[in-house]
Specification:
16 helices; six-stranded mixed β-sheet; about 500 residues; Aldehyde Dehydrogenase, Chain A, domain 1; 2 domains; seven-stranded mixed β-sheet; binds nicotinamide-adenine-dinucleotide; Aldehyde Dehydrogenase, Chain A, domain 2; alpha/beta; single chain
Length: about 500
Protein backbone atom coordinates (compact mmCIF):
# COMPACT_ATOMS: atom_id res chain seq x y z
CA UNK A 1 0.00 0.00 0.00
CA UNK A 2 1.29 3.45 -0.89
CA UNK A 3 2.05 5.71 2.06
CA UNK A 4 -0.71 8.18 1.20
CA UNK A 5 -3.54 5.67 0.99
CA UNK A 6 -6.56 6.23 3.19
CA UNK A 7 -8.47 3.09 4.10
CA UNK A 8 -12.04 2.54 2.94
CA UNK A 9 -14.96 1.19 4.89
CA UNK A 10 -16.77 -1.88 3.57
CA UNK A 11 -20.52 -1.42 3.88
CA UNK A 12 -23.40 -3.18 2.12
CA UNK A 13 -21.07 -5.18 -0.09
CA UNK A 14 -19.04 -2.22 -1.39
CA UNK A 15 -15.95 -0.21 -0.53
CA UNK A 16 -16.90 3.31 0.53
CA UNK A 17 -14.66 6.27 1.32
CA UNK A 18 -15.29 7.67 4.78
CA UNK A 19 -16.48 11.25 5.17
CA UNK A 20 -14.34 11.46 8.34
CA UNK A 21 -12.64 14.79 8.97
CA UNK A 22 -10.18 13.11 11.35
CA UNK A 23 -7.68 10.43 10.43
CA UNK A 24 -4.57 8.80 11.89
CA UNK A 25 -1.34 7.58 10.35
CA UNK A 26 -0.83 3.82 10.47
CA UNK A 27 2.77 3.48 11.58
CA UNK A 28 5.12 0.49 11.40
CA UNK A 29 6.40 0.50 15.00
CA UNK A 30 9.85 -0.85 14.02
CA UNK A 31 10.66 1.34 11.03
CA UNK A 32 8.23 4.25 11.77
CA UNK A 33 7.26 4.11 8.10
CA UNK A 34 3.72 5.40 7.50
CA UNK A 35 1.79 2.49 6.01
CA UNK A 36 -1.41 4.35 5.28
CA UNK A 37 -4.08 6.47 6.95
CA UNK A 38 -7.13 5.35 8.83
CA UNK A 39 -10.29 7.46 8.92
CA UNK A 40 -12.03 7.95 12.26
CA UNK A 41 -15.46 7.27 10.84
CA UNK A 42 -18.40 9.27 12.21
CA UNK A 43 -21.55 7.74 13.72
CA UNK A 44 -23.39 8.21 10.41
CA UNK A 45 -21.17 5.56 8.81
CA UNK A 46 -21.78 3.11 11.64
CA UNK A 47 -25.46 3.81 11.03
CA UNK A 48 -25.05 2.91 7.34
CA UNK A 49 -23.32 -0.36 8.29
CA UNK A 50 -25.91 -1.21 10.94
CA UNK A 51 -28.76 -0.54 8.52
CA UNK A 52 -27.12 -2.62 5.79
CA UNK A 53 -26.62 -5.46 8.26
CA UNK A 54 -30.19 -5.20 9.55
CA UNK A 55 -31.48 -5.32 5.96
CA UNK A 56 -29.38 -8.46 5.34
CA UNK A 57 -30.63 -10.29 8.44
CA UNK A 58 -33.94 -11.72 7.14
CA UNK A 59 -32.27 -13.22 4.07
CA UNK A 60 -29.11 -14.45 5.79
CA UNK A 61 -30.92 -16.22 8.63
CA UNK A 62 -33.01 -18.08 6.04
CA UNK A 63 -29.92 -19.45 4.29
CA UNK A 64 -29.60 -23.02 5.64
CA UNK A 65 -26.75 -23.40 8.12
CA UNK A 66 -25.06 -25.95 5.86
CA UNK A 67 -25.04 -23.35 3.05
CA UNK A 68 -23.85 -20.53 5.29
CA UNK A 69 -20.84 -22.64 6.17
CA UNK A 70 -19.97 -22.98 2.46
CA UNK A 71 -19.00 -19.29 2.58
CA UNK A 72 -16.74 -20.09 5.54
CA UNK A 73 -15.13 -23.03 3.75
CA UNK A 74 -14.35 -20.63 0.88
CA UNK A 75 -13.02 -18.08 3.36
CA UNK A 76 -10.75 -20.70 4.90
CA UNK A 77 -9.34 -21.41 1.42
CA UNK A 78 -8.68 -17.70 0.79
CA UNK A 79 -7.05 -17.26 4.20
CA UNK A 80 -4.76 -20.24 3.53
CA UNK A 81 -3.82 -18.87 0.09
CA UNK A 82 -3.00 -15.48 1.61
CA UNK A 83 -1.53 -16.82 4.85
CA UNK A 84 1.90 -15.31 4.28
CA UNK A 85 0.82 -11.87 3.16
CA UNK A 86 -1.71 -11.63 6.00
CA UNK A 87 1.01 -12.61 8.47
CA UNK A 88 3.35 -10.00 7.00
CA UNK A 89 0.64 -7.35 7.30
CA UNK A 90 0.28 -8.18 11.00
CA UNK A 91 4.03 -7.78 11.50
CA UNK A 92 4.14 -4.54 9.53
CA UNK A 93 1.47 -2.75 11.52
CA UNK A 94 1.72 -4.46 14.92
CA UNK A 95 5.45 -5.20 15.24
CA UNK A 96 5.37 -8.85 16.38
CA UNK A 97 7.73 -11.28 14.66
CA UNK A 98 6.65 -13.03 11.49
CA UNK A 99 6.48 -16.37 13.31
CA UNK A 100 4.27 -14.85 16.00
CA UNK A 101 2.07 -13.36 13.26
CA UNK A 102 1.83 -16.78 11.59
CA UNK A 103 0.73 -18.28 14.90
CA UNK A 104 -1.95 -15.63 15.12
CA UNK A 105 -3.19 -16.36 11.59
CA UNK A 106 -3.27 -20.10 12.36
CA UNK A 107 -5.55 -19.49 15.34
CA UNK A 108 -7.72 -17.16 13.22
CA UNK A 109 -8.22 -19.90 10.62
CA UNK A 110 -8.85 -22.49 13.32
CA UNK A 111 -11.85 -20.44 14.46
CA UNK A 112 -13.25 -20.49 10.93
CA UNK A 113 -12.82 -24.28 10.90
CA UNK A 114 -14.66 -24.71 14.20
CA UNK A 115 -17.50 -22.45 13.04
CA UNK A 116 -17.91 -24.72 10.00
CA UNK A 117 -19.41 -27.24 12.44
CA UNK A 118 -22.39 -24.96 13.06
CA UNK A 119 -25.00 -27.27 11.47
CA UNK A 120 -24.54 -29.55 14.48
CA UNK A 121 -23.21 -27.00 17.00
CA UNK A 122 -26.36 -24.87 16.83
CA UNK A 123 -28.84 -27.73 17.04
CA UNK A 124 -31.50 -27.45 19.70
CA UNK A 125 -33.16 -30.24 21.66
CA UNK A 126 -36.65 -31.55 22.25
CA UNK A 127 -38.81 -33.62 24.56
CA UNK A 128 -41.86 -35.56 23.46
CA UNK A 129 -44.89 -35.78 25.75
CA UNK A 130 -43.91 -33.24 28.38
CA UNK A 131 -47.58 -33.66 29.14
CA UNK A 132 -49.87 -36.06 27.38
CA UNK A 133 -49.84 -35.19 23.66
CA UNK A 134 -47.70 -32.08 24.18
CA UNK A 135 -44.14 -31.76 22.85
CA UNK A 136 -41.52 -29.13 23.60
CA UNK A 137 -38.57 -27.91 21.51
CA UNK A 138 -35.66 -25.57 21.99
CA UNK A 139 -34.58 -23.92 18.75
CA UNK A 140 -31.60 -21.61 18.41
CA UNK A 141 -32.12 -18.57 16.23
CA UNK A 142 -29.65 -15.80 15.37
CA UNK A 143 -29.39 -13.04 17.96
CA UNK A 144 -29.35 -10.36 15.23
CA UNK A 145 -26.79 -7.86 13.98
CA UNK A 146 -23.58 -8.22 15.98
CA UNK A 147 -20.31 -6.28 16.15
CA UNK A 148 -16.79 -6.49 17.51
CA UNK A 149 -14.70 -3.62 18.90
CA UNK A 150 -11.15 -4.99 18.77
CA UNK A 151 -7.78 -4.19 20.42
CA UNK A 152 -4.42 -3.62 18.73
CA UNK A 153 -2.44 -6.63 19.93
CA UNK A 154 -4.04 -9.34 17.75
CA UNK A 155 -5.28 -7.53 14.64
CA UNK A 156 -6.62 -10.75 13.08
CA UNK A 157 -7.23 -13.34 15.79
CA UNK A 158 -9.53 -11.35 18.04
CA UNK A 159 -12.11 -10.47 15.37
CA UNK A 160 -11.94 -14.18 14.42
CA UNK A 161 -12.85 -15.24 17.99
CA UNK A 162 -16.30 -13.94 17.13
CA UNK A 163 -17.02 -13.21 13.45
CA UNK A 164 -17.05 -16.78 12.02
CA UNK A 165 -19.50 -17.97 14.70
CA UNK A 166 -21.74 -14.92 14.32
CA UNK A 167 -21.93 -15.45 10.55
CA UNK A 168 -22.39 -19.21 10.76
CA UNK A 169 -25.25 -18.73 13.24
CA UNK A 170 -27.04 -16.43 10.76
CA UNK A 171 -26.07 -12.99 12.06
CA UNK A 172 -24.78 -10.17 9.84
CA UNK A 173 -21.59 -8.72 11.29
CA UNK A 174 -19.73 -5.42 11.74
CA UNK A 175 -16.03 -5.22 12.56
CA UNK A 176 -14.48 -2.10 14.09
CA UNK A 177 -10.75 -2.86 14.20
CA UNK A 178 -8.33 -1.04 16.45
CA UNK A 179 -7.50 2.25 14.75
CA UNK A 180 -3.84 1.45 15.46
CA UNK A 181 -3.78 -1.76 13.37
CA UNK A 182 -6.55 -1.52 10.75
CA UNK A 183 -4.67 -2.94 7.75
CA UNK A 184 -5.06 -6.63 8.60
CA UNK A 185 -8.85 -6.47 8.70
CA UNK A 186 -8.81 -4.36 5.52
CA UNK A 187 -6.97 -7.24 3.87
CA UNK A 188 -9.32 -9.85 5.41
CA UNK A 189 -12.31 -7.91 4.07
CA UNK A 190 -10.83 -7.97 0.57
CA UNK A 191 -10.98 -11.75 0.91
CA UNK A 192 -14.49 -11.66 2.40
CA UNK A 193 -15.50 -9.57 -0.62
CA UNK A 194 -14.09 -12.24 -2.97
CA UNK A 195 -15.96 -14.96 -1.08
CA UNK A 196 -19.14 -13.12 -2.10
CA UNK A 197 -21.22 -12.97 1.06
CA UNK A 198 -24.66 -11.47 0.34
CA UNK A 199 -24.76 -7.65 0.52
CA UNK A 200 -24.67 -6.32 4.09
CA UNK A 201 -23.72 -9.63 5.76
CA UNK A 202 -20.14 -8.49 6.51
CA UNK A 203 -19.24 -4.86 7.19
CA UNK A 204 -16.07 -3.01 8.19
CA UNK A 205 -16.09 0.43 9.78
CA UNK A 206 -12.78 2.03 10.70
CA UNK A 207 -12.61 4.40 13.62
CA UNK A 208 -12.02 5.06 17.27
CA UNK A 209 -14.24 6.01 20.18
CA UNK A 210 -16.97 7.74 18.16
CA UNK A 211 -17.47 4.66 15.98
CA UNK A 212 -17.40 2.39 19.06
CA UNK A 213 -19.97 4.54 20.85
CA UNK A 214 -22.18 4.56 17.78
CA UNK A 215 -22.16 0.73 17.79
CA UNK A 216 -22.96 0.66 21.52
CA UNK A 217 -25.93 2.97 20.99
CA UNK A 218 -27.31 1.76 17.67
CA UNK A 219 -30.73 0.11 18.10
CA UNK A 220 -30.15 -2.32 15.23
CA UNK A 221 -27.00 -3.77 16.84
CA UNK A 222 -28.09 -6.56 19.19
CA UNK A 223 -24.79 -7.99 20.44
CA UNK A 224 -21.37 -6.50 21.17
CA UNK A 225 -18.05 -8.30 21.63
CA UNK A 226 -15.30 -6.12 23.03
CA UNK A 227 -11.67 -6.90 23.84
CA UNK A 228 -9.31 -4.26 25.21
CA UNK A 229 -8.21 -2.58 28.42
CA UNK A 230 -10.22 -3.05 31.61
CA UNK A 231 -11.27 0.59 31.92
CA UNK A 232 -12.80 0.58 28.44
CA UNK A 233 -14.20 -2.95 28.91
CA UNK A 234 -16.16 -1.77 31.96
CA UNK A 235 -17.43 1.25 30.11
CA UNK A 236 -18.47 -0.77 27.04
CA UNK A 237 -20.14 -3.41 29.21
CA UNK A 238 -22.21 -0.82 31.09
CA UNK A 239 -23.16 1.24 28.04
CA UNK A 240 -24.12 -1.71 25.85
CA UNK A 241 -26.11 -3.29 28.70
CA UNK A 242 -27.88 0.01 29.41
CA UNK A 243 -28.96 -0.06 25.77
CA UNK A 244 -30.37 -3.58 26.20
CA UNK A 245 -27.70 -5.39 24.20
CA UNK A 246 -26.05 -8.72 24.79
CA UNK A 247 -22.43 -7.95 25.60
CA UNK A 248 -19.14 -9.74 26.38
CA UNK A 249 -16.00 -7.78 27.26
CA UNK A 250 -12.45 -9.06 27.68
CA UNK A 251 -10.24 -6.72 29.72
CA UNK A 252 -6.64 -6.37 30.85
CA UNK A 253 -4.39 -8.76 32.77
CA UNK A 254 -1.40 -9.16 35.05
CA UNK A 255 -0.61 -12.85 34.73
CA UNK A 256 1.46 -14.63 37.37
CA UNK A 257 3.44 -17.80 36.86
CA UNK A 258 4.45 -19.79 39.91
CA UNK A 259 7.76 -21.69 39.88
CA UNK A 260 7.91 -24.48 42.44
CA UNK A 261 11.29 -25.80 43.65
CA UNK A 262 10.96 -29.02 41.64
CA UNK A 263 10.24 -27.28 38.31
CA UNK A 264 12.38 -28.31 35.35
CA UNK A 265 14.57 -25.21 35.25
CA UNK A 266 15.64 -25.08 31.57
CA UNK A 267 12.10 -25.78 30.34
CA UNK A 268 10.51 -23.35 32.80
CA UNK A 269 12.95 -20.61 31.86
CA UNK A 270 12.47 -21.05 28.12
CA UNK A 271 8.67 -21.11 28.39
CA UNK A 272 8.53 -18.19 30.82
CA UNK A 273 10.80 -16.09 28.60
CA UNK A 274 8.54 -16.81 25.61
CA UNK A 275 5.48 -15.89 27.63
CA UNK A 276 6.89 -12.70 29.18
CA UNK A 277 8.83 -11.36 26.19
CA UNK A 278 7.06 -12.91 23.17
CA UNK A 279 4.98 -10.36 21.23
CA UNK A 280 7.01 -7.81 23.26
CA UNK A 281 4.89 -8.65 26.30
CA UNK A 282 1.77 -7.40 24.51
CA UNK A 283 -0.32 -10.54 24.86
CA UNK A 284 -3.22 -10.57 27.25
CA UNK A 285 -1.77 -13.94 28.35
CA UNK A 286 1.80 -12.68 28.78
CA UNK A 287 3.43 -13.70 32.05
CA UNK A 288 4.20 -10.48 33.86
CA UNK A 289 4.95 -11.79 37.36
CA UNK A 290 7.04 -14.83 38.23
CA UNK A 291 6.57 -16.04 41.79
CA UNK A 292 9.32 -18.37 42.93
CA UNK A 293 8.69 -20.72 45.83
CA UNK A 294 11.43 -21.86 48.23
CA UNK A 295 14.65 -22.97 46.60
CA UNK A 296 13.53 -21.96 43.10
CA UNK A 297 14.42 -18.33 43.90
CA UNK A 298 18.09 -18.00 43.03
CA UNK A 299 18.47 -20.40 40.08
CA UNK A 300 15.33 -19.11 38.38
CA UNK A 301 16.33 -15.45 38.76
CA UNK A 302 19.74 -16.19 37.24
CA UNK A 303 18.34 -18.26 34.38
CA UNK A 304 15.56 -15.83 33.42
CA UNK A 305 17.98 -12.88 33.58
CA UNK A 306 20.24 -14.71 31.13
CA UNK A 307 17.28 -15.49 28.83
CA UNK A 308 16.13 -11.85 28.95
CA UNK A 309 19.56 -10.42 28.27
CA UNK A 310 20.24 -12.71 25.30
CA UNK A 311 16.86 -12.48 23.56
CA UNK A 312 17.29 -11.25 19.99
CA UNK A 313 15.35 -8.00 19.55
CA UNK A 314 14.76 -6.43 16.16
CA UNK A 315 12.50 -5.94 13.19
CA UNK A 316 9.86 -8.68 13.09
CA UNK A 317 10.41 -9.35 9.38
CA UNK A 318 14.15 -9.94 9.85
CA UNK A 319 15.41 -13.50 10.23
CA UNK A 320 16.35 -14.81 13.67
CA UNK A 321 14.54 -12.06 15.57
CA UNK A 322 12.76 -13.27 18.73
CA UNK A 323 11.06 -10.06 19.78
CA UNK A 324 9.81 -6.95 17.98
CA UNK A 325 8.95 -3.44 19.20
CA UNK A 326 6.02 -2.32 21.33
CA UNK A 327 3.17 -0.68 19.46
CA UNK A 328 4.14 3.02 19.64
CA UNK A 329 6.51 5.62 21.01
CA UNK A 330 3.87 6.49 23.57
CA UNK A 331 3.76 2.86 24.71
CA UNK A 332 7.58 2.71 24.90
CA UNK A 333 7.62 5.82 27.09
CA UNK A 334 4.92 4.37 29.33
CA UNK A 335 6.69 1.01 29.72
CA UNK A 336 10.03 2.69 30.48
CA UNK A 337 8.35 4.96 33.00
CA UNK A 338 6.83 1.92 34.76
CA UNK A 339 10.25 0.22 34.91
CA UNK A 340 11.57 3.32 36.66
CA UNK A 341 8.59 3.34 38.98
CA UNK A 342 9.22 -0.33 39.85
CA UNK A 343 12.79 0.60 40.83
CA UNK A 344 11.43 3.49 42.88
CA UNK A 345 9.10 1.11 44.67
CA UNK A 346 11.96 -1.10 45.76
CA UNK A 347 12.63 -3.57 42.91
CA UNK A 348 16.11 -4.20 41.57
CA UNK A 349 16.35 -3.74 37.78
CA UNK A 350 18.18 -7.00 37.17
CA UNK A 351 18.01 -6.66 33.37
CA UNK A 352 17.25 -3.17 32.09
CA UNK A 353 15.61 -2.88 28.67
CA UNK A 354 15.25 0.89 28.66
CA UNK A 355 16.90 3.07 26.08
CA UNK A 356 17.12 0.27 23.50
CA UNK A 357 18.66 1.22 20.15
CA UNK A 358 18.39 -1.39 17.43
CA UNK A 359 20.92 -0.84 14.62
CA UNK A 360 19.08 0.18 11.48
CA UNK A 361 15.85 0.82 13.41
CA UNK A 362 16.96 3.58 15.79
CA UNK A 363 13.60 5.38 15.58
CA UNK A 364 11.57 2.24 16.35
CA UNK A 365 9.57 1.72 19.55
CA UNK A 366 11.86 -0.91 21.04
CA UNK A 367 12.12 -1.86 24.71
CA UNK A 368 14.43 -4.78 25.45
CA UNK A 369 13.39 -7.56 27.85
CA UNK A 370 13.47 -6.34 31.42
CA UNK A 371 13.53 -8.20 34.73
CA UNK A 372 12.55 -6.50 37.99
CA UNK A 373 13.75 -8.57 40.93
CA UNK A 374 12.13 -8.35 44.35
CA UNK A 375 9.05 -6.43 43.21
CA UNK A 376 7.14 -5.73 46.45
CA UNK A 377 3.73 -7.50 46.27
CA UNK A 378 1.84 -4.41 47.42
CA UNK A 379 3.55 -2.03 44.98
CA UNK A 380 1.74 -0.19 42.20
CA UNK A 381 3.86 -1.84 39.50
CA UNK A 382 3.02 -5.30 40.88
CA UNK A 383 -0.66 -4.52 40.24
CA UNK A 384 -0.46 -2.52 37.00
CA UNK A 385 -0.70 -4.09 33.57
CA UNK A 386 2.52 -2.93 31.89
CA UNK A 387 1.83 -4.47 28.44
CA UNK A 388 5.49 -4.54 27.55
CA UNK A 389 8.42 -7.01 27.90
CA UNK A 390 8.82 -6.62 31.65
CA UNK A 391 8.81 -9.52 34.10
CA UNK A 392 8.57 -8.83 37.84
CA UNK A 393 10.07 -11.44 40.17
CA UNK A 394 8.59 -12.10 43.60
CA UNK A 395 9.41 -14.72 46.17
CA UNK A 396 7.40 -16.69 48.74
CA UNK A 397 8.19 -19.66 50.96
CA UNK A 398 5.19 -21.93 50.33
CA UNK A 399 2.67 -22.90 47.68
CA UNK A 400 -0.07 -21.59 50.02
CA UNK A 401 1.45 -18.12 49.89
CA UNK A 402 1.84 -18.35 46.11
CA UNK A 403 -1.83 -19.24 45.63
CA UNK A 404 -2.82 -16.45 48.01
CA UNK A 405 -0.76 -14.01 45.95
CA UNK A 406 -2.37 -15.20 42.70
CA UNK A 407 -5.86 -14.92 44.17
CA UNK A 408 -5.26 -11.51 45.73
CA UNK A 409 -4.93 -9.89 42.30
CA UNK A 410 -7.62 -7.77 40.67
CA UNK A 411 -7.22 -9.51 37.32
CA UNK A 412 -7.98 -13.15 36.58
CA UNK A 413 -6.97 -13.84 33.00
CA UNK A 414 -4.33 -16.54 33.44
CA UNK A 415 -2.08 -18.16 36.03
CA UNK A 416 0.49 -20.91 35.45
CA UNK A 417 2.41 -23.29 37.64
CA UNK A 418 5.67 -25.08 36.85
CA UNK A 419 6.24 -28.27 38.80
CA UNK A 420 6.76 -32.02 38.43
CA UNK A 421 4.41 -32.69 41.35
CA UNK A 422 0.95 -33.73 40.17
CA UNK A 423 -0.72 -33.04 43.49
CA UNK A 424 0.68 -29.50 43.64
CA UNK A 425 -0.41 -28.92 40.04
CA UNK A 426 -3.91 -30.21 40.75
CA UNK A 427 -4.23 -28.00 43.81
CA UNK A 428 -3.13 -24.98 41.81
CA UNK A 429 -5.59 -25.75 39.02
CA UNK A 430 -8.37 -26.21 41.55
CA UNK A 431 -7.74 -23.11 43.65
CA UNK A 432 -6.44 -20.48 41.23
CA UNK A 433 -9.08 -17.78 40.71
CA UNK A 434 -8.42 -17.20 37.02
CA UNK A 435 -10.11 -18.14 33.77
CA UNK A 436 -7.16 -19.82 32.03
CA UNK A 437 -4.68 -22.07 33.85
CA UNK A 438 -1.36 -23.36 32.54
CA UNK A 439 0.37 -26.39 34.02
CA UNK A 440 3.96 -26.38 32.75
CA UNK A 441 2.60 -24.13 30.00
CA UNK A 442 3.33 -20.39 29.86
CA UNK A 443 0.64 -19.12 27.50
CA UNK A 444 -2.51 -21.05 28.32
CA UNK A 445 -4.34 -19.84 25.20
CA UNK A 446 -7.39 -22.01 24.59
CA UNK A 447 -7.64 -23.62 21.17
CA UNK A 448 -10.64 -22.54 19.07
CA UNK A 449 -13.02 -25.25 20.27
CA UNK A 450 -12.63 -24.11 23.90
CA UNK A 451 -13.81 -20.75 25.25
CA UNK A 452 -11.16 -18.08 25.73
CA UNK A 453 -11.94 -17.52 29.38
CA UNK A 454 -11.07 -14.75 31.84
CA UNK A 455 -12.32 -13.90 35.33
CA UNK A 456 -12.55 -10.92 37.66
CA UNK A 457 -11.42 -7.63 36.06
CA UNK A 458 -10.23 -9.51 32.98
CA UNK A 459 -13.72 -10.29 31.77
CA UNK A 460 -17.21 -8.82 32.04
CA UNK A 461 -20.09 -10.95 30.84
CA UNK A 462 -21.19 -14.57 30.86
CA UNK A 463 -20.21 -16.14 27.55
CA UNK A 464 -16.69 -15.97 26.13
CA UNK A 465 -15.34 -15.96 22.59
CA UNK A 466 -14.61 -19.18 20.61
CA UNK A 467 -16.22 -22.61 20.69
CA UNK A 468 -19.60 -23.40 22.20
CA UNK A 469 -19.69 -20.16 24.20
CA UNK A 470 -19.65 -18.26 20.91
CA UNK A 471 -22.52 -20.37 19.59
CA UNK A 472 -24.50 -19.55 22.73
CA UNK A 473 -23.62 -15.87 22.47
CA UNK A 474 -24.69 -15.53 18.84
CA UNK A 475 -27.97 -17.40 19.16
CA UNK A 476 -31.10 -16.83 21.18
CA UNK A 477 -33.20 -19.70 22.38
CA UNK A 478 -36.78 -20.11 21.35
CA UNK A 479 -38.82 -22.69 23.22
CA UNK A 480 -41.92 -24.06 21.53
CA UNK A 481 -44.66 -25.99 23.32
CA UNK A 482 -46.93 -27.80 20.84
CA UNK A 483 -50.25 -29.58 21.22
CA UNK A 484 -51.55 -31.73 18.37
CA UNK A 485 -54.50 -33.78 19.72
CA UNK A 486 -54.65 -37.25 18.23
CA UNK A 487 -58.35 -36.93 17.39
CA UNK A 488 -57.60 -34.25 14.80
CA UNK A 489 -55.65 -36.77 12.71
CA UNK A 490 -58.81 -38.84 12.23
CA UNK A 491 -60.24 -36.21 9.85
CA UNK A 492 -58.22 -37.84 7.03
P1 LIG B 1 -8.10 -0.26 24.27
O1 LIG B 1 -9.04 -0.48 25.40
O2 LIG B 1 -7.32 1.01 24.24
O3 LIG B 1 -8.90 -0.28 22.87
C1 LIG B 1 -9.69 -1.38 22.47
C2 LIG B 1 -10.76 -0.90 21.50
O4 LIG B 1 -11.63 0.01 22.17
C3 LIG B 1 -10.24 -0.17 20.27
O5 LIG B 1 -10.99 -0.60 19.15
C4 LIG B 1 -10.51 1.30 20.57
O6 LIG B 1 -10.80 2.05 19.41
C5 LIG B 1 -11.74 1.24 21.46
N1 LIG B 1 -11.78 2.30 22.47
C6 LIG B 1 -10.73 2.83 23.15
N2 LIG B 1 -11.18 3.72 24.05
C7 LIG B 1 -12.53 3.76 23.94
C8 LIG B 1 -13.55 4.49 24.60
N3 LIG B 1 -13.28 5.37 25.58
N4 LIG B 1 -14.82 4.27 24.24
C9 LIG B 1 -15.14 3.38 23.29
N5 LIG B 1 -14.20 2.65 22.62
C10 LIG B 1 -12.92 2.85 22.94
O7 LIG B 1 -7.15 -1.54 24.22
P2 LIG B 1 -5.81 -1.75 23.36
O8 LIG B 1 -4.73 -0.89 23.92
O9 LIG B 1 -6.11 -1.68 21.90
O10 LIG B 1 -5.50 -3.29 23.69
C11 LIG B 1 -4.70 -3.71 24.75
C12 LIG B 1 -5.53 -4.19 25.90
O11 LIG B 1 -6.36 -5.26 25.49
C13 LIG B 1 -4.70 -4.74 27.06
O12 LIG B 1 -5.24 -4.25 28.26
C14 LIG B 1 -4.90 -6.24 26.95
O13 LIG B 1 -4.74 -6.96 28.15
C15 LIG B 1 -6.28 -6.32 26.46
N6 LIG B 1 -6.58 -7.59 25.83
C16 LIG B 1 -7.38 -8.46 26.50
C17 LIG B 1 -7.67 -9.70 25.96
C18 LIG B 1 -8.55 -10.67 26.69
O14 LIG B 1 -8.87 -11.70 26.14
N7 LIG B 1 -8.96 -10.40 27.90
C19 LIG B 1 -7.13 -10.06 24.72
C20 LIG B 1 -6.32 -9.14 24.05
C21 LIG B 1 -6.05 -7.91 24.62
Amino acid sequence: MAGSDRLLNYIAGEWRPSSATEELDIVNPATVEVLGRVPLSPAAEVDQAARAAAAALPGWRRVPASERTQYLFKLKGRLEEHFEDLSRTITLECGKTLDEARGEMRRSIENVEVACGIPTLMQGYNSEDISSGIDEFMIRQPVGVAAVIAPFNFPSMIPFWFMPYALACGNPYIVKPSERVPLTMQRVFQLLDQVGFPRGVVNLVHGGRAAADALLDHPAVRAISFVGSTAVAKYVYARAAANGKRVQCGGGAKNPIVVLPDADLPMTTRITADSAFGCAGQRCLAASLAVTVGEAKKPFAEAIAEAAATRVVGYGLAGGVQMGPVISHESKRRVEQLIGQGAGEGAEVLVDGRGARIPGYEAGSFVRPTVLRGLPPGSEVARTEIFGPVLGLMHVDTIDEAIELVNGARYGNMACVFTQNGAAARRFRYEAEVGNVGINVGIAAPIAFFPFSGWKESFFGDLHGQGLDAVEFFTQKKVVVERWPKEWSRTF
